[in-house]
Amino acid sequence: MDKVPITAGGFQRLQEELRQLKTVERPAVIKAIAEAREHGDLSENAEYHAARERQSFIEGRVAELEDVISRCEVIDVKKLSGDTVTFGVTVEVADEDTDEETKYTIVGPYEADLSKGMISTSSPIARALIGKRVGDSVEVATPRGAKSLEILSIAIQ
C-alpha cells in the first residue's frame, strides 16, 4: 500500500468527516430506513429507496475514508526548509506570457481544492514545480496548452 502524504490540517478534516458520518449521518439514515419501513410496501416506497441509497453512499464513503486514513503519512510542513518547492509549501508563480500571478499550495490528493489554490502533488503544475527554486522557470503542459511559469516566492504556511 502506498502512503498518502497529507498535512496535519487535512488529516484532521478527514478524521472529522469520518466521525460525522459514523456518529451523525449513519444513525440518521438508519432511523429514516426504519421509519420508511413502517409505511408498508417497500417495493413502491420512494422514501425507503432514497434512504437505502443514502445509506449505501455513507457506507462507501466511510470505507474510503478509513482506507485513506490508514495510509496517511502526516507531514509537518513547519520542518521543511522552504528553499525549494516541496509538499506543503505555498508557491507564487507568474505566467511568463500574461504576467498573471497565482499562488498554489502543494498538498496531497485528498486535500486538493483548486478553488482554494490547493493543488495535488500529482497535478501537472505541482510535478513541474517540485524541486525548483525562486527565479526558476518551468514549462507546464496543461489542457489549454503549454504554459511558462516563473517562481516568484516560496513560503511555508
From TrEMBL:
The protein's job, in short, is: Necessary for efficient RNA polymerase transcription elongation past template-encoded arresting sites. The arresting sites in DNA have the property of trapping a certain fraction of elongating RNA polymerases that pass through, resulting in locked ternary complexes. Cleavage of the nascent transcript by cleavage factors such as GreA or GreB allows the resumption of elongation from the new 3'terminus. GreA releases sequences of 2 to 3 nucleotides.
| KW Nucleus (keyword) present | no
Annotated Transcription elongation factor GreA/GreB C-terminal domain ranges read: 82-154
InterPro entries tied to this protein = GreA/GreB_C_sf (IPR036953), TF_GreA/GreB_CS (IPR018151), Tscrpt_elong_fac_GreA (IPR006359), Tscrpt_elong_fac_GreA/B (IPR028624), Tscrpt_elong_fac_GreA/B_C (IPR001437), Tscrpt_elong_fac_GreA/B_fam (IPR023459), Tscrpt_elong_fac_GreA/B_N (IPR022691), Tscrpt_elong_fac_GreA/B_N_sf (IPR036805)
Question: Would you identify the family this protein belongs to, as annotated?
Answer: Belongs to the GreA/GreB family.
* GO terms classed as biological process: DNA-templated transcription elongation; regulation of DNA-templated transcription elongation
State the species of origin.
Thalassobaculum fulvum
Task: Give me the gene this protein comes from.
Answer: greA
Specify the taxonomic lineage.
Answer: Bacteria, Pseudomonadati, Pseudomonadota, Alphaproteobacteria, Rhodospirillales
The record's PROSITE patterns line, in alphabetical order, gives:
GREAB_1 (PS00829), GREAB_2 (PS00830)
Q: Enumerate the spans annotated as Transcription elongation factor GreA/GreB N-terminal domain.
A: 4-74
Q: Recorded GO terms, molecular function?
A: DNA binding; RNA polymerase binding; translation elongation factor activity
Q: Which UniProt keywords apply?
A: DNA-binding, Elongation factor, Protein biosynthesis, Transcription, Transcription regulation
HAMAP family associated with the record: GreA_GreB
Quote the protein name from its UniProt record: Transcription elongation factor GreA
